[in-house]
What does this fold into?
Amino acid sequence: MGEPFEQLLSQRTSSMQRNPIREILRALAQPGMISLAGGIPAPETFPIEDLYRINETVLDRYGPAALQYDLTEGFAPFREALAGYLATKGIDADAERLLVFNGSQSVLDTLGKILISPGDVVALESPSYLGAISAFSSYLPEYVSIETDDDGIIPESLERVLDQHKVKFVYLVTTFQNPTGRTLSLRRRQEIAAIVKDRNALVVEDDPYSDLRYRGEVVPPLQSFAPENTVYASTLSKIFAPGLRLGFCLAPPLIREWLYIAKQGADLHSNTYAQALATEYICGGFIDKQVPKIIDLYRPRQEAMLSTMARHFPQEYRWTKPEGGMFIWVEGPAGVDAEAVYWKAIERKVAFVPGKYFYVDPSDGLATMRLNFTRVDEAAIESAVAALGAVLKEFGAN
Amino acid sequence: MGEPFEQLLSQRTSSMQRNPIREILRALAQPGMISLAGGIPAPETFPIEDLYRINETVLDRYGPAALQYDLTEGFAPFREALAGYLATKGIDADAERLLVFNGSQSVLDTLGKILISPGDVVALESPSYLGAISAFSSYLPEYVSIETDDDGIIPESLERVLDQHKVKFVYLVTTFQNPTGRTLSLRRRQEIAAIVKDRNALVVEDDPYSDLRYRGEVVPPLQSFAPENTVYASTLSKIFAPGLRLGFCLAPPLIREWLYIAKQGADLHSNTYAQALATEYICGGFIDKQVPKIIDLYRPRQEAMLSTMARHFPQEYRWTKPEGGMFIWVEGPAGVDAEAVYWKAIERKVAFVPGKYFYVDPSDGLATMRLNFTRVDEAAIESAVAALGAVLKEFGAN
It folds into this structure.
């Protein structure tokens, strides 16, 4: 006899599993461990001191309205604030068209819910954000991969995928991608916009990292080149506080309407109080002060990681040099098993995420690794990367 | 040609629609309208003054941890606080077994996700909470109804339903039910516990209202009589603040594990900051001061509604006299169309919810109405109920 109630489970549970990265993060509680795993902001980036004041402003200004049931689409002053924030990115967002969700993760889940019937095709860049794969998989899609290079997805590969499959949507993290740190180039954005418009295809552009730019030129969102074909999803998790779970999206009208209906049935609406805090964070000018501070904290951490890698990693390894974001992506020579490297690194008190988790095909990416540089300071990064380099050299010597 | 992207929608959208009550609430913005619709707490029940202090305590005590990514199962101090709160209800809840969600609505959605494959049978008391029907329907179940009387669901009807159908789960609001205000009697709880244990059936007990008791004896949750067969779901929306979206559940181990996995994929975790506020609200003793205040506010409102109904409603109408909660349920004589009454009442600036929305079969409950007494004060209730009584008499005279 199996577990009680096992016969009650839905078919879709067959495709659902614990997120391996969140499970890896659980294992990191060991003392002395330096984590280059995860994609977690440094706690010192949170505007704790400002929040004493922001809380008071919210209670003074909104009173009970900040604590009451509210509209499914989101707290109206927050949507106004978001529209202003998005305008600075070149996105023409009417507050009426925005929808607020519990983190961008729940945008992705809800998109899966309204778009994916079992067997439908979703196109992913390869490698792709693991959380998106987790969110979509519970609706039983098939995945097809779009090839990528240092400039992001390759337009010809996208064309081929759209021509050969009945694709429900294409999912992309366009700027400082998770896991690779890569940014889709301006020229590629224009090409891809033309391709999706030509084929009336739908793109989901997930953009959590674009504010974390440490050098180089700003690139406008893909959404701004193909607004009628793009669901633009983002979050305040990387520029305010992830614990507030503030995600949002801007979608074409029909998609917006179904996202609204699905969200209403799933959770009525998102946390009003957190939305009110974020409203004051944006409108009170705190964000304009805080984001440069976050950048000033992360830039030297990334530089420390890149320069230590250059000194300590074996020369047959390649890695990305992103202009921003939270991650560096490492590709080892064929034959290296990054999971074996992981276990050896854990013994040396260094953690990272083996890159294979970011591929839909389990035989891909075996020699790849994702390194995060936002969580710990330069000294810890240097010591961790040096230790990891030593582990890699041992593997090379086998 | 249809709307762009219409061909992209999943099959499940065919069963999804805007929640008619939330849509009715939108229409209530007219000046002078007195709403007996909705199920919304009075704004004066929110502990605004306490929240200035609670916010400071949270920032002082938890600092960045209240703003950071956190565990999918919920903020550990909040789960500890909830376990203590549930113990006062006779529920033996280990903090390790609790799961926190974005309102109890998202417990219901996630249960639907892990349990319902298209065509699976869900058993509902009739009438039933509309939000639950919305949450489950997106997973394409079939519904069977369990008959009810003034003591809640009728055990023989439950037995018949369980014997004749392969039921995935039974959904019940056991105390001060929405929409009827009815409470499943102690004796019935014992009988129903025996029935579900005997058949190894799963019950979802939704319990948002039991703290709002204005008179009579406390009845322990059904969960306490059949803990291994019950998913107990509740919320702080009615005793703290609904805008914080704090729901939670206690489930048998296998169900808990799948709820965890599904939640991880859907939204990673719930708002950490709101959970920290609730922790201090409970552990700082604020809840023990606030709930009696809420009861003292609502009890006279309910009494005003009941006594005005007795004076002004036609004698062929029947209604419930609940010992607590937020609703009174009215049954008119056969032939009355409560939706026509609704439109006439709106002209007189009184709103309520036609009861038919709470039935799965659209031909049921045509003469029923749900009245809420928590949102407006006694004077407004008396004038609204008197006006509604006049409308009902006009209908009787037709």
Notes: The radius of gyration of chain B is 21 Å.
